[in-house]
Specification:
Number of domains: 2
Radius of gyration: 22 Å
Number of strands: 9
CATH architecture of the largest domain: Sandwich
Helix content: 10-25%
Organism: Hypsizygus marmoreus
CATH topology of the largest domain: Jelly Rolls
CATH superfamily of the largest domain: PITH domain
InterPro entries: Galactose-bd-like_sf, PITH1-like, PITH_dom, PITH_dom_sf
Oligomer: single chain
Order of helices and strands: EEEEEEEEEH
Strand content: 25-35%
Protein name: PITH domain-containing protein P35G2.02
Distance between the termini: 79 Å
Largest sheet: 9 strands, mixed
Number of helices: 1
Family: Belongs to the PITHD1 family.
GO cellular component, one term: cytoplasm
Length: 212
């Protein structure tokens, strides 16, 4: 499958190479991470919708019946968590039309609490200019910066002239692996709790002895 490539996408892959057996070539629908996005926990800020409606399966990527439109102004934040560890390779966007197209998109890897108050102080992991068009634009990501991602936050800072920004489709291409670190976290938490208990008991006895 070929995708519409915007002029400022900075593609590292070759558009003429459609050999999907190699993960360094351009990616197709079999690499779509839709089924690995935790859609129930996708959230959007300053929009008329909630967020998950623009996380669509591949065959609905051109559908314009559902979209997100900014509310109070032309800025939008979308947080997208994954069900495992992801190596991202491309961002897919269908936006607009015309001057409702965002001027830029900034991506933040593993930043789960960004809001409009602090996002301006954070350097994005990567950002792109967004070109107008009715097709899906593909933006090649630096995989070295998106190699172990549990969530990605998209920030659209402004429209291209309209009072509001509109997003029809957000897709992500890459490779998913099951998260392996849950048992390790459980072990560390257990050890930390056990270590805390003797300190608490010791402190109690130190203070209770003079009072008796």
């Amino acid at each position: 499958m070929s995708h519409q490539h915007n002029g400022s996408c900075g593609h590292e892959s070759h558009d003429h190479d459609h050999d999907h057996d190699h993960d360094t070539t351009d990616l197709g629908p079999q690499d779509n991470l839709y089924i690995h996005i935790d859609r129930s926990n996708v959230v959007a800020f300053n929009t008329t919708g909630s967020g998950p409606e623009v996380i669509k399966p591949w065959h609905e990527r051109l559908d314009e019946s559902q979209s997100l439109e900014s509310d109070a102004d032309d800025q939008i934040i979308i947080r997208i968590p994954f069900t495992g560890s992801v190596r991202l390779r491309s961002l897919l966007l269908k936006t607009g039309p015309t001057d409702q197209t965002p001027s830029k998109v900034a991506l933040y890897a593993n930043e789960t609490n960004l809001d409009f108050n602090d996002i301006a102080d954070k350097a994005p992991t990567q950002e792109f200019d967004v070109a107008q068009g009715r097709e899906v634009g593909e933006y090649a990501l630096k995989t070295s910066k998106f190699s172990n991602v549990s969530s990605v936050t998209l920030f659209f800072p402004a429209s291209q002239g309209a009072d509001t920004t509109q997003i029809y489709y957000v897709g992500l291409l890459g490779h998913w692996t099951e998260r392996k670190n849950n048992p390790i976290i459980t072990v560390y938490e257990t050890q930390a709790n056990l270590a805390d208990h003797p300190k608490i008991q010791g402190t109690d006895s130190t203070f209770s002895t003079p009072q008796m």
